[in-house]
Amino acid sequence: MTVYLSTTHTVINTCVPSDRLTVQDKRELLKDKDKFDYYTKKVNEFYTQKRFDNIQVYPHFSKPKGLTIIINEIDWAPNPNKRRNGSEKDAEKLEILFRELGYEIYQQKTLENLTKKEMLDHLEAFATDVRHKDGSSCIVVIMSHGNEDVVCDTKGTRILINHEIKPLFNGKNAKDLVGKPKLFIYQSCRGGLFDSPKLKVPVYRNSRRWD
Predict the structure, then answer these.
(1) For domain 66-187, is the CATH number 3.40.50.1460?
(2) What are phi and psi of 177, to 5 degrees?
(3) Distance CA 90, CA 171 (A)
């Protein structure tokens, strides 16, 4: 996503002298769908014509952009009091976000409360999905309890990120994703250390609550 927008900015800067184009101008251009589509088309043309061979970027012009899988382990069998309340809202907003960015949601919904076997089976099926052949990238989101290099299924079983999840997406197992960006997002604990704040921000109890 960032690569795609950055490349679009490159073309904007190429078409319009940089001394006449401010950051605000770029933001306004990106708000205008017709102009944005025009510059996106130019990016595609310049890329295919190898006008930017000296810039290392991924092509990101497919429609849809690719597939996204979202897994949300809400319930926690080892301790029902540690149910991940509110994570449903996070997943719902992620679905909206990725659809607006041009991605297709795997199975058209968030997958909830999976066992380890179910999670790995879904991830393997996702990694080998034939639709990746036409996509530019993919996104994997796993929301759960966890630890460093570990996420847990709904029953508390540990799943090793680097040894059980990532290998599913290597060149041998996911041939249609070779050479394409693969974004992994883990919403989980990464250990027992805490980051001590350097700046204290006052909490206004009567302030507006944002949904």
Answers:
(1) yes
(2) -110, 5
(3) 31
Phi and psi at residue 159, to the nearest 5°: -130, 120
pTM to 2 decimals? 0.70
Contact assessment for residue 154 and residue 73, using Cβ atoms and an 8 Å cutoff: yes
User: CA-to-CA distance for 117 and 197, rounded, in angstroms?
Assistant: 39
Domain ranges, ordered by start, for the chain: 2-48, 66-187
Q: Tens digit of pLDDT for each residue in 158-184?
A: 999 999 999 999 999 999 999 999 999
Helix or strand run (H / E) with residue 61: none
Query: Which contiguous run of DSSP H or E holds residue 195?
Result: none
Q: Which H or E run contains 33?
A: helix 33-48
Contact at 8 Å (CB) between 133 and 94?
A: no
Axis crossing angle, helix 33-48 with helix 2-15, rounded to the nearest 10: 90
Which residue of the set 60, 132, 138, 145 is catalytic? 145
Q: Is 60 a catalytic residue?
A: no
Give the integer Cα–Cα distance in Å for 60 and 178: 14
By the 10 Å C-beta count (0-12 exposed, 13-18 middle, 19+ buried), 187 is classed as middle
Whether 122 is a known active-site residue: answer: no
Confidence at residue 204, expressed as pLDDT on a 0 to 100 scale: 46
